[in-house]
Design goal:
Distance between the termini of chain A: 54 Å
Number of helices of chain A: 6
Strand content of chain B: 15-25%
Strand content of chain A: 25-35%
CATH architecture of chain B: 3-Layer(aba) Sandwich
Largest interface: A-B, 58 and 54 residues
Structural class of chain B: alpha/beta
Helix content of chain B: 10-25%
Largest sheet of chain A: 8 strands, mixed
Number of strands of chain B: 15
Shape of chain A: globular
Radius of gyration of chain A: 18 Å
Number of domains of chain B: 1
Oligomer: heterotetramer
Shape of chain B: globular
CATH topology of chain B: Glutaconate Coenzyme A-transferase
Number of strands of chain A: 11
Helix content of chain A: 10-25%
Number of helices of chain B: 5
CATH class of chain B: Alpha Beta
Order of helices and strands of chain A: HEHEHEHEHEEEEEHEE
């Protein structure tokens, strides 16, 4: 299907200033780190980024924030990033905080061709301000609109030349719902295989949703909160 | 008076066999350590996992396997991984039996504030708004008073809300309290060594004391 | 989790007259044939059945129709069943025809806690009669309500004792969306394994959605349209 | 005049490299046989498959592997299986590039009727209403006239509708026609040996003939 591109640079070559991007990942887990590096290198600006988190100071979307490439963040939790907080408090950065489930569901809505969805999340809070509220069966729901993103950029563990994707463990998170939602979807993978090497029953994101795919090299996969236990004496 | 581990221990007693439970960040995370052995309980992590296991052994951390607090974890046998939309789908559809989370303030009608201090701190609501809007069984784990010594159990919340009319029970270092449907904090149990008077003094919202309040057994 | 039951009879023991059931399957593919047989044996009546099709005369939901156990069918396509057509034309059977995608999405809505969804399917047709129409971005959509089913009955290929399910090939179809949507969900499987034997990354329906599970014996898995090609001369 | 295979052959020429295509039951199914070798085309089956392969060899039928017409099929390398909600999700989100389906009637403004004859036949709409409501590129494959000899290309449909303003192109045994945005069937091509007059006689709706109408090359 001619979806395979050679590099992150090629994959993001036509991302322009002012565009809206979805970026997969939860914290630093399952983050499209190669595309983010390419965007930092490319220096594209005034981006609106839809991503659950904003990375940390020196990794993930934090790298784009440091370079002032981001005009607006749409996220559910941004509490691990000092530079982010500084830009937010100074007014340099516009931020729309969205409940995490609402964020995921607005992505899914885009991928499923549903213009809007109903969720009770945020009823009675400032999230509800200016939004339509509807009561179904005695319970209030907010009407939330599907996202409209120029590009979705996701990270999978494995992909094939048809664009089919498989995620690994909790690195799945927002990636499949964002993969469905982009006008153009770019997938970076740790392993790129031939069509037929992924069991069709194991595909998480069908290739129809994926427009470009490439194999990233030397993933850093940084850990945000390393928590361990000691081995018991055997 | 209870320490954090004591609060977690007391909350663990609310968990029943067969429950699916979502544990928030902070004290709620500790609850996992006190679920009775042999009890079949599955912990849901809203980043997309049913079946949170203990922290990995040193050197066995997997960057792809984390909980909603972004901590490295392990996955138990019989687990399932799913995407964020399904994760909150099952939360909205009330498939999760018990939600335990922290709070900055709780009001006597069950409102909760937990995500923002205007002008000071805006980390975001994460999944908390989704959880409190849908869960039918919500326990708040928190300190009874804040660092300035002010009560966190109020007639009305002063901070931006996370959700309304949703908290069912509160466990603090001083007491276990039930939020009454008609409003008010009903005192169910005192922490060991804590008097009703001390709890009254630390509670700004309406405190309902119906009879002899037993000391909690943990 | 005490989800494993010994038989289809035990699994359906508390299904009562007048209840609403969802039944997985597309045609005869991925059909919960053991539970259907148990319902036929039990003789429960006045059921509302939500299922994409109505089986054929002597298999699937057709067996329940023959016994007049079904008061109402909610389906997208019912064209393979003479007894069905007879009951429909005579007025014995109430039928609500729903576009297939709407049917699937109304199931998903229930499983995802969304009271209603928007879809353009049926705009300008008799399906739209009496329904709320909303325009988003210049296009009209119908508001369709989530289903409300007492039981969902699904068939999977493999399941574990925690209720996690894996489907095989196109026998997946409606099963995962219905599994999410029942107040009580019953899963029948060809292979029942211990917790830990299914890779968590391969689970299609997480166990939280499944309340009862059992291993069915001797699946018939009837083929509706056997189409083949001749082997080329080698 | 074309036979069914001829109609399928002509429609196959509308398919472009890289397309995802949904083929309806009947003549549309035959189109698969005429996709040029070497062209990268993926067939979507709305019961939950991308990558329909040929029918299985005798004795290799798998009851778990069928197409939307309930026929036993095979699955090609690089296929993906998904549930019905995702299947129609990708249809609604316009990820499928081309939809080819049958019809009982088409009107000159692109309305289509295909699922019901009141009092006579009610098989249901299956996935057709979802497909025609969302697809941007819809070709109808059908006979120009019905068994009673009446035109199926009408000023307005007489049967219950499947969708409105949606059909873009029609291929029949007599002709290839485009539905004009302002209404009307523009005659693009004649079937081999068929005259413009024959097509005019078989078309009840407004027929637009702009110039010399070429005979189709198949």
């Amino acid at each position: 299907m001619l979806k395979v591109v050679s590099s992150a640079d090629e994959a993001v070559h036509d991302i322009q200033d002012g565009m809206t991007l979805m970026l997969g990942g939860f914290g630093l887990c399952g983050l499209p780190e190669k595309c983010i590096a390419a965007l930092v290198k490319k220096g594209v600006k005034n981006l609106t980024c839809i991503s659950n988190n904003a990375g940390v100071d020196d990794f993930g979307i934090g790298l784009m924030l440091k370079q002032r490439q981001v005009k607006k963040m749409i996220s559910s939790y941004v509490g691990e990033n000092a530079e982010f907080e500084r830009q937010l408090l100074s007014g340099e950065l516009e931020v729309e905080l969205v409940p995490q489930g609402t964020l995921a569901t607005r992505c899914m809505a885009a991928g499923y061709g549903m213009p809007a969805v109903f969720t009770p999340a945020g009823i009675g809070t400032e999230v509800a301000v200016g939004k339509e509220i509807r009561n179904f069966n005695g319970k209030d729901y907010l009407m939330e609109m599907a996202f409209d993103a120029d590009f979705a950029i996701v990270k999978a563990w494995k992909g094939d030349t048809m664009g089919n994707l498989v995620y690994r463990s909790t690195a799945r998170n927002f990636n499949p719902v964002m993969a469905m939602a982009g006008k153009v979807t770019i997938a970076e993978v740790e392993e790129l295989v031939e069509a037929g090497e992924i069991d069709p029953d194991h595909v998480h994101t069908p290739g129809i949703y994926v427009h470009r795919i490439f194999k990233g090299e030397n993933y850093e996969k940084r850990i945000e909160q390393r928590t361990v236990r000691k081995k018991d004496n055997a | 008076m209870l320490d954090k581990e004591g609060i977690a221990k007391r909350i663990a007693k609310e968990i029943k066999d067969g429950y699916y439970v979502n544990l928030g960040i902070g004290i709620p995370t500790l609850v996992a350590n006190y679920i009775p052995k042999g009890m079949d309980v599955v912990l849901q992590s809203e980043n997309g996992l049913l079946g949170i296991g203990p922290f990995p052994f040193e050197g066995e951390e997997d960057p792809d396997t984390i909980n909603a607090g972004k901590q490295t974890i392990t996955i138990l046998p019989g687990s399932a991984i799913f995407d964020s939309a399904m994760s909150f789908g099952m939360i909205r559809a009330k498939k999760v039996n018990l939600t335990i989370l922290g709070a900055m303030e709780v009001s006597e009608n069950g409102d909760i504030a937990s995500w923002k201090i205007p002008g000071k701190m805006v980390k975001g609501m994460g999944g908390a708004m989704d959880l409190v809007a849908s869960a039918e069984n919500i326990i708040v784990a928190m300190q009874h008073v804040n660092k300035a010594g002010e009560s966190k159990l109020l007639p009305e919340c002063t901070l931006p809300l996370t959700g309304i009319n949703c908290v069912k029970k509160i466990v603090t270092e001083l007491a276990v309290l039930q939020v009454l449907p008609e409003g008010g904090f009903k005192l169910l149990e005192r922490a060991p060594g804590v008097s009703v008077e001390e709890i009254e003094a630390a509670t700004a919202g309406k405190l309902v004391i119906e009879s002899d309040v037993p000391e909690m057994a943990i």
